């Protein structure tokens, strides 16, 4: 089998959990003997993963609004095309269908963007989240147009069923794939201070840093006057650097090359997220590092299942700070929370369980492709109408560019 992943950006596993997710997909397919290709219309950056040299994945630079894409993909002839997030499917889905109508089309949501947007607006307006928003119209339409959608969180799978009655046949739960956690791991006494980690390009992370600086950290520092908080994150903006204040123990440290190794140096990881969606890579990194996380309800969503988290979960800043201080000072409580993290990683996200499931799911969907599409009449309608408007807009942009080149 041959698979093509069309990425929104080139994967940067040292910058975000989304980059690690892409590499999980690549590993899962390669271990099953698949030939994997990756393409993106974005520019490769200095932190982009070297897919060719490190994993043997053929990489291709593609362009938006180019009919040459259809000729190229027809020649490549993948059996399966995986779209990295709904906007990539909007841009290339109709072209894939035109060139390769029998290719299995897969959407990887990464997280539900409409849920994240609804929660962000709810935080700003102090009103209940409005899930039926403009992003939902686009994202759910993309799910219907594809043959199968990978959903990273069980909570989001349940939401799509309860709120939008999406057919279960169109959805597949496939979370992060984690290696065996724990060893070697520094002891409680060898670790010091607190950490926060996450790309500053991701709005929930920046909001969490500001929220922590204003409400949580002053209370922790009052009770632990020698403690420090180290904030790590890729693409650190100037507005974040301005919060750097060693005198108050608040350190903006910028990018780290290895999140797990960095977290191993610290006693506790703080994740006071107030909005977001999906599974939080900062917490799975902490599992692997053996670093307990004090977290908000949004942060842990989809992670523990029925397993204990290891410490109380709060979104109230005072209670959050109290938990952090207690866990920081108590080695027995700290060890208990650490072991809970290990068990969540092992029982719910171990790569030995999940890597082999992806090619199996895709292979089964490919075998039943005709029947699946026949049953998905809503998807047929959306491809006929909505994708036609997307197609005409793209062709208009292409024609306009060609005319300007002739002038």
Protein model, in words:
The strands form two sheets. The chain has a seven-stranded parallel sheet with strand order 3-2-1-4-5-6-7, with helices on both faces. α4 packs across α18 (377-406), α6 (134-145) crosses α18 and α13 (317-329) packs across α14 (331-349). The termini are far apart. With 407 residues, it is an alpha/beta fold. The longest helix has 30 residues, at 377-406. It has 18 helices and twelve strands. Helix content is 51%, strand content 13%. The protein has two domains: 2-177 and 353-406, Rossmann fold, CATH 3.40.50.2000; 194-349, Rossmann fold, CATH 3.40.50.
Brief summary of the model shown:
With 407 residues, the protein is α/β, with parallel strands linked by helices. It contains 18 helices and 12 strands.
Q: Give the beta-strand count.
A: 12
> Helix proportion of residues, in percent?
40-55%
The Rg value, from CA coordinates, equals 22 Å
Query: So what's the overall shape?
Result: globular
Uncertain segments are none
CATH-assigned fold name of the largest domain: Rossmann fold
Strand content: 5-15%
Mean pLDDT, to the nearest integer, reads 94
Q: How many domains make up the coordinates?
A: 2
Number of helices: 18
CATH class of the largest domain: Alpha Beta
Order the strands across the largest sheet as they lie in space.
3-2-1-4-5-6-7
The CA-CA distance between the termini, in Å, is 45 Å
Largest sheet: 7 strands, parallel
Instruction: Give the CATH superfamily of the largest domain.
Output: Glycogen Phosphorylase B
Order of helices and strands: EHEHEHEHEHHEHEEHEHEHEHEHHHHHHH
Look at the helices and sheets and give the structural class: alpha/beta
Q: Architecture of the largest domain, CATH level 2?
A: 3-Layer(aba) Sandwich
